[in-house]
Write a structure and sequence with these properties.
It contains 1 helix and no strands. By secondary structure, the protein is mainly alpha-helical. The N and C termini lie far apart (88 Å).
């Protein structure tokens, strides 16, 4: 059986397509960068979340203070599972 092949404009000439990003993707990435930039600027302007929050480079000076009610394992008492 004979198969006929049809080719457009010559014998197998393949023209590479220019690869470009769609305009919607470029717009989305630009908007994303803008949102992150504004978010970073607002966060840097606002400062730390809590007044007692310190960066990693600072150390606390001063005496003891309130530990915020954080307790150790001994605060749990004698918790035993099951019915003894």
């Amino acid at each position: 059986m004979h198969e006929s092949r049809q080719s457009s404009s010559g014998a197998g000439a393949v023209l590479p397509r220019k690869v470009t990003a769609p305009p919607a993707l470029c717009g989305f990435l630009l908007l994303l960068a803008l949102v992150f930039t504004v978010s970073y600027t607002v966060g840097a302007t606002a400062g730390p979340v809590a007044p007692s929050t310190h960066g990693t480079g600072t150390s606390r000076s001063g005496g003891g203070g309130d530990d915020g009610g954080a307790g150790g394992v001994d605060d749990m008492g004698d918790m035993h599972g099951g019915g003894r």
